[in-house]
DNA sequence: GCCCGGCCGGGACAAATGTCACGGGCCACG
DNA sequence: CGTGGCCCGTGACATTTGTCCCGGCCGGGC
């Protein structure tokens, strides 16, 4: 019996996947969670063989949780299952010790075979995505630039950002400017868009 | 036998739902599509009793397709299934003649019962969402304001927008300003965010 | 008919934004 | 020990953005 943990915030998706995987005769869903900060505790309780994690989760990112899970329960393999095939996500997933990376496009059948492969010690990664991740190069943004850029989503003014990050407005503008330069964009919104696109959040 | 059409762009979600609904003894999935502009043609071919439509689809919005489908095939009931419970979406769905509106949170079991209810002539709508839709009021934006605001996503400059919408830059700024006023926000990004939030895109 | 509202444009102005040059402090690496 | 990178801040500057005027052209409704 292969013991599975499933982390996914969308209730319908979670339920459908659980039902689906439960149909496989040798699979058993031992835990379903809808928030990132429940992953590690539930895993410690239920000792799954494979954890299927979404990335965008309330509470804690699936990538964060993946790293923590590898630490706390090395026997458990991590398979990332995400909507967005962003190069930076894949890179971070690998750095976090994930054994596989699937996007939610692709057919459902992929899922079960991926689980089995991962358990067999293989790594499963979309080849095209791997190429994109390599060609995109590593994250050029410094930690501070990331902070400022993250705080700049949904139209915050410089003053808002400065307050949120506890910096001088002047400094914020400098970081924004350098981030805009590094992303080769023309303004802050394009910069956040580009950074998100690449998974450099 | 209840004949179903399923429109959803995410392959995994589509596959999982199809499998799930196929499990019901009296359901039959007669068509699966991944793009909005395939909905009506496929429906005319396959004559489903109920169409399950996502809203955000490539090619054509599910809401658009819903209206066209009600026109072309009045016997077919429309059930909107979406990630975002935006008040304006619900409103537009109702205006398009949809019989039900479900969000992808909530448990999977809801889905089958919703299909049966819709077929029985009932309307299925989340009560909380209905209240929100009523309290939010109708879309205050004029068509042009919508155009300009839509073109303002991901950091386009005034010149970009003017070129995209074939207007003078001065006019664009006026529309942006009035849209900002109507959404009670401080800049264009907050305005697009607010407008999207309410489903006024 | 007249008025109202949406459409389209212009001009002028304050504020916000993006850029550049410049300082100093800190830590790591050769 | 120097050098380079990141951190944090300042000041000045041109550009962009948001706002408030103004004008005119339509079409629908009382």
Automatic annotation (TrEMBL), chains A, B:
<feature type="domain" description="Response regulatory">
    <location>
        <begin position="3"/>
        <end position="119"/>
    </location>
</feature>
<dbReference type="InterPro" id="IPR016032">
    <property type="entry name" value="Sig_transdc_resp-reg_C-effctor"/>
</dbReference>
<keyword id="KW-0597">Phosphoprotein</keyword>
<dbReference type="InterPro" id="IPR000792">
    <property type="entry name" value="Tscrpt_reg_LuxR_C"/>
</dbReference>
<dbReference type="InterPro" id="IPR039420">
    <property type="entry name" value="WalR-like"/>
</dbReference>
<dbReference type="GO" id="GO:0006355">
    <property type="term" value="P:regulation of DNA-templated transcription"/>
</dbReference>
<feature type="domain" description="HTH luxR-type">
    <location>
        <begin position="134"/>
        <end position="199"/>
    </location>
</feature>
<dbReference type="GO" id="GO:0000160">
    <property type="term" value="P:phosphorelay signal transduction system"/>
</dbReference>
<dbReference type="Pfam" id="PF00196">
    <property type="entry name" value="GerE"/>
</dbReference>
<feature type="modified residue" description="4-aspartylphosphate">
    <location>
        <position position="54"/>
    </location>
</feature>
<dbReference type="InterPro" id="IPR011006">
    <property type="entry name" value="CheY-like_superfamily"/>
</dbReference>
<keyword id="KW-0238">DNA-binding</keyword>
<dbReference type="InterPro" id="IPR001789">
    <property type="entry name" value="Sig_transdc_resp-reg_receiver"/>
</dbReference>
<protein>
    <submittedName>
        <fullName>LuxR family two component transcriptional regulator</fullName>
    </submittedName>
</protein>
<dbReference type="Pfam" id="PF00072">
    <property type="entry name" value="Response_reg"/>
</dbReference>
<dbReference type="GO" id="GO:0003677">
    <property type="term" value="F:DNA binding"/>
</dbReference>
